[in-house]
Amino acid sequence: MTTYIFGHKNPDTDSVCSSIALAYLKNEIGEKCVPKVLGDLNNETKFVLDYFKVDTPSYLNDVRVRIKKIKYDKKAFINEYASIDEAFKLMQKRNITAIPLINDNRKLTGYVTLKEIAKFLINGDKEKINTTFANIVATLEAKIITQYDEVIKGNILVAGMQSKDFFDAVQLNSDDILIVGDRYRILDYAIDSKVKLIILPFNSTINKELLAKAKKNKINIIETALGSYLISNRILLANYIKSINTNHDPVTVNNEDSYIEFKHMTHQVNHTNYPVVNNKGECLGLIRLTGPNTYEKQKVILVDHNNFAQSVDGIEEADIVEIIDHHNLGAIGTNIPINFRSRPVGCTATMVYEMFLENKVTIPKAIAGILLSAILSDTLLLTGPTTTEDDRFAAVKLSSLAKVDLESYGIEMLKAASSIANMSVADVIKNDFKTYNVNDEVIGIGQVITMDFDYIKNNMEEFVTELNNMTDRFKAVALFVTDVIKKGSYVLYNDSAAELIKDAFGLKEVREGTFLAKKVSRKKDFLPNILSILDGSELR
Fold it and tell me: Fewest Cβ atoms nearer than 10 Å: which of 20, 221, 373, 458?
C-alpha cells in the first residue's frame, strides 16, 4: 500500500516542502510514498514550488476507512432474469442470506432474501411459469429435443390421469406447459393443441411421427431424468428471480461511504445484508454486518504536527507509521510503537535534511531548494527565536545545493509571501491557523507574515468582526501579524480574549492592533505566553 505523507491543515511552506522532500527520500530508499496537502497553499509556498519547478501535491480530504477498502463479497449479485434456482445456488455458494438483483447494465434493481424464496415456494402460484427456455433447461437439468422460443410463459399441467379423463377434463392451448411421459394419445393431443412446451420425465422418448408433427407445429420439447412430481415442484425454481422481488429500493451503502458511518447506520436499520453501490447506481457486491469485513488502514506519515486537531479528518482510523515534527507533543496516540522523530529545531525541514544525510541519499537541486525555503520561512530568515545552529548549518548547505544566495533568495521569498492585498479577511486569518485544546475548551491562533500591516489596519473592523464570528467554535481566537523587518507582531483578537491577551503579554492596556516587540514565533512567543495564563484556569 502507498503511504501518504502530509503536514497539518492550513499548510505552510515547512509542512508542504518537508512532505514533498520526505516522500522523495522514502521512494529513493524503496518505500512507496506520496506527498499530500490538507488545504490550499499560501502565496509563499506557491512561490517556492513555482521557483524550483516542483509539482503541488494533490489534496487529501480524509483518511477514513471507506467501504471500497473493505473486503466485502464482490461477487454477490445476480441478474434479475436469472432463475430462482440459480440465485439460491449462488447464495449457498457465497454463504449469504440475501442477494442483490441487477439489470444488464449492472444497475441495482432489487434484493431478494432466503425468507422470500421460502415464502414463494410455500405460498406462491405453483401453476404459473414465466422465464427463459434456458432457465427451465438448467433448473431441470434437461436435454433439448426442440426449441423455438426464448421465453416460456404459461400454465403448468401434469398429465397424470387416464387419457379419456384427461381429454374430458383438460382443454389444452398454446399457453400450457405439459409434463407428460411416453403416452402417445396425450402427446398427440398436446401437439395438435400447439402447447408452449412439453417436458418428458424419466428421459422418456417421443416417436418419429410425433416429433415430426411437433416440429411442424413448432413445439418446444425437452427431456429430463426427473420424475413428474419432482419436475412439477422444481420447475417453479426456473422462474425469474425478479418475480419474487418485493424490495425494489433496498437500503444500500455507497462504496465511498465511511465504514464507521456504515456501522452507525446499521444500528438504526438493523439489517444483516447491504448491497454496495457506486455513484452510478451500479451494484458492486454485498457487505454483511456479520461478515469478517477485514480491511487495511491507510498508512500515513505525519510531518510538522502531531495533534489530532491539526491533522487530516479521520486520522484516528489511519495507521500512523511515522511522525517527524519540531513542535510540542500533542494528543495523537498509536496502537503500536512507531518511528517518532522530534527535535527542538526551528523547522521540520532541518530534520528531513538530516535524514537525507543519514540514508546517504543525494539531494537534488529542487529538493534542496524547497527544504531551504521551509527553513527560511519557519525561522524568519534565520532570525527567529526558534532558530538553532542545526537550522543555520542546514540552510547554508542547502543553499549551495540549490545554487541560490541564501539572503537574497530569502528576501525575495518573503516579499512574495507578504502580499495580502488580494486576500479576503477570512483567508488572511486562516492562512496559517492552528487550534489547541485547553481545559476542555478550544483556542485558535493564526499568524500571517507581512510587511503590509496598513492593509489590516485600514480594515481592522472587518478583521475583528470575523474573529468574533469564530467565537461559536473557539473560546479565544487571536491573529498575530508578524513584520520580520520590525521584528515584532501586531495582535488582533476576538472580544472575549482581550483580558487573556493583556495578561499573556504583560500589557498595561490592550487594543486591537497592539504591537508586540520581539514577538515573532507562535511556538516560542505566542502559544507559551497564552498557555501560561490558561494553565489550570478556566477560559474567560
Answer: 458
251-254 contacts at long range (C-beta below 8 A, 24 or more positions apart): 252/108, 252/276, 252/277, 253/67, 253/277, 253/287, 254/67, 254/278, 254/279
Q: Which residues pair with 439 in a beta bridge?
A: none
pLDDT at 540: 35
pLDDT in tens, 362-396: 999 999 999 999 999 999 899 888 899 999 999 99
pLDDT confidence of 539, banded at 50, 70, 90?
very low
Q: Which CATH superfamily is domain 142-225 in?
A: HprK N-terminal domain-like (3.40.1390.20)
CA 261 vs CA 253, 274, 276, 280, 308: distances in Å? 10, 14, 14, 20, 19
Asked whether the beta carbons of 13 and 56 are under 8 A apart, the reply is no
Phi, psi of 414 (to 5 degrees): -65, -40
pLDDT above 70 as % of the chain:
97
Amino acid in position 533: I
Q: What CATH number should be reported for the domain whose range is 3-64+298-418?
A: 3.90.1640.10
Task: Please compute the mean of the pLDDT values over residues 133-157 and round it to a whole number.
Answer: 96
**Distance between CA atoms of residues 502 and 34, nearest Å:** 44
Q: Which residues contact 472 (CB under 8 A, 6 or more apart)?
A: none
pLDDT of res. 150: 97
The Cα–Cα gap between 399 and 445 comes to 31
pLDDT given for residue 335 in this prediction: 67
The letter for the amino acid at 295 is Y
The confidence score (pLDDT) of residue 333 equals 64
List every span in the chain annotated with CATH 3.10.310.20: 425-534
Question: Is the entire prediction scored with pTM above 0.85?
Answer: no
CATH of 425-534, one of 3.30.450.20, 3.10.129.10, 3.10.310.20, 3.40.50.720: 3.10.310.20
Answer whether 332's CB lies under 8 Å from 458's CB: no
**Every domain range in the chain assigned CATH 3.40.1390.20:** 142-225
- Identify whether the C-beta of residue 206 lies closer than 8 Å to the C-beta of residue 214: yes
Q: Element (H or E) spanning 349, and its range?
A: helix 348-358
pLDDT in tens, 114-127: 999 999 988 888 88
Contact assessment for residue 413 and residue 376, using Cβ atoms and an 8 Å cutoff? yes
Domain with CATH 3.90.1640.10 in the chain: 3-64+298-418
Q: Residue 309 phi/psi, 5° resolution?
A: -65, -25
Which residue's entry shows cell 501579524? 481
By CB atoms closer than 10 A (0-12, 13-18, 19+), residue 459 is: middle
SS3 label, residue 449:
strand
Q: How far lies 66's CA from each of 32, 36, 302, 378, 512, in Å? A: 21, 18, 20, 35, 46
